[in-house]
Amino acid sequence: MHTLTTNGPLRLIQITDTHLLGPEDGRLLGMPTSQSLDCVLNSIRKQHPQFDAFLVTGDLTQDGSEKSYQHLHDVMSTFQRPAFWLRGNHDEPSAMSKVAQGTEHLQRVIRNEHWQIIMLNSQVEGAVFGELAGEELEFLDYTLTEAPDLHTLVCLHHHPVSMNCAWIDPIGLRNSHEFMQLLGRHDNVRGVAWGHVHQALEGVQDGIRLMATPSTCIQFEPNSDDFALDDQNPGYRWFELHADGKFDTGVERVKGVHFEVDHSQTGY
């Protein structure tokens, strides 16, 4: 567990799906992912100079290389803020763990006086879809039960609800019904945030706010039947978590920079 000491709201920045590669000039469908991440981080510096921690919700790299994780660690360390990492379907656990050794990156529970953030591993090694293993659901249930007075934000990589996107929905969280049922048995869950879908979404289900966050690189076209890229710029999500359990959140995108992407591709 990692404890954050805060004055006022707990301020968090979620970035996701950075898809970094070993070579710093590496590209994903035409997008220079290291450059796009730098643009997102520069936007965060300007728009949110005061915040408490980063949540990095999976697909940190595209190639699973140790060098790509090291680059992510190095560029984010310039903020001098803790950064908590989750696995996505593209991540390589051993390389990720090696770079994270001796840091806070792989802490699963983050708490302050009023809130806790629970980081869940939905990776199924070798698969694109996600699933929460039995021990992961037990961990979630235990952590929610252990601190019933703490408002809770749950983070994972794969989407637990439909994105109304025919090609994306089958590669979401396979046991989403079980996950949502578990959350419904606890009255301290305020929100769920994820990545994977490279687009923004906000909704409410059974009183729990549900939030998808754009990638720091390529964006997927919402409501598409087949794989398609969107022309929106890379982005991130910010949170202000208040003592009474309410929270504010929003998505910001890079401004003033044009990125070329390869629309001819049918997957990645």
Automatic annotation (TrEMBL):
One of its GO terms (molecular function) is cyclic-nucleotide phosphodiesterase activity. Residues 10-199 form the Calcineurin-like phosphoesterase domain. It holds the Pfam family Metallophos. Belongs to the cyclic nucleotide phosphodiesterase class-III family. SUPFAM superfamilies: Metallo-dependent phosphatases (SSF56300). This is 3',5' cAMP phosphodiesterase. It comes from the Bacteria. The keyword rRNA-binding does not apply. Gene3D superfamilies: 3.60.21.10. Keywords: Hydrolase, Iron, Metal-binding.
